[in-house]
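Researcher: We're teaching a course module on how sequence relates to structure. For the next exercise, students receive a sequence and then see the predicted structure as tokens, so they can try to spot secondary structure elements on their own. Here is the exercise chain.
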Amino acid sequence: MIEIDGSLGEGGGQVLRTSIALSAVTQQPVRVVKIRAGRPKPGLSPQHVTSVEAVAALCDATVEGLCIGAQEIRFRPGALLGGGYIFDIGTAGSISLVVLSCLLPAALSKSKVDMVVTGGTDVKWAPPIDHLLRVHVPIAERFGLRCSAELISRGFYPEGGGEVRIEVVPSGGLLGVSLNERCSPTRIKGIAYSQNLPEHVVSRMRHAAMRKLIPMGGAEIEPDVRRGRSTGAGIFLEADRGQSLIGQSALGQRGVRAEALGESCASDLLETVESAATVDMHMLDQVLLYMALARGPSVVVAEKMTRHAKTNIAVIEQLLDRRFTVIENDDGSVELAID
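Model: And here is the predicted structure for the students to work with:
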């Protein structure tokens, strides 16, 4: 059994999610200790418990020590067989992070996986569901993932109530991809959304972002106004760079004007687009797993190296016989490659 130190690097839940996902696909049992030791409330939250339960269901694993607050678990995977599953976080915990734990085990299962996950779609400290649907899945499909995803309802903190449906068809293996050619965006588009709020909130966010993006040729931003269990708003933008996609988001918060939210999201997107990056900061962490499990070489370019990426590389290299090469470019960008 391989022991993984959960306090490694930034000491968050990513160490746990990467460990159990790779355990499931490699059939190597793992013991994860000091889970989330770097967080104000160490140990497992409901979202992390659901992530482990979900991956365990996909690979018929035996798990010891799994409970809210636990700082150590033992995970013994079985066979990846596929099937239909419903996973309820029970809080506004991130649906995106639960799904990200499951995508690779699902892709390498014997048969199709259908999942319904309920919880939070748009919450702090996690990629929004639109990043998963509009950026992550299309890039993962370049590696060979075969996935369709549908947003049924949005869920904001604290009530949650979001629902997402995912279908993953076995890929038969992944192939390496080179995402290192800088291309000017061919288009920018996105979505401005709200739930249980006046329609003008979305309109103000949307128009502020579009004005900011006029120098880039403008943007197509669709409005999405809903009623639901929880209340909130946000905006997500994506830039198509031909061979890859760059995403940026902003989540509404009390006291922040809708116009400021739209402008800041557009400004952040422009900053990344103007760099040499071919993946954004969220995708950088996530793409490393596809690169490591794919046959053949892969390469991506990031705006900068992050602690999350360094941590994920350390966990991946402990569990797999693959090694990353990291090159810092003169413009400050970073190229990450694996042979």
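Model: If you want an answer key for the exercise: The mean pLDDT is 95. Residues 42 and 194 are 32 Å apart (CA to CA).
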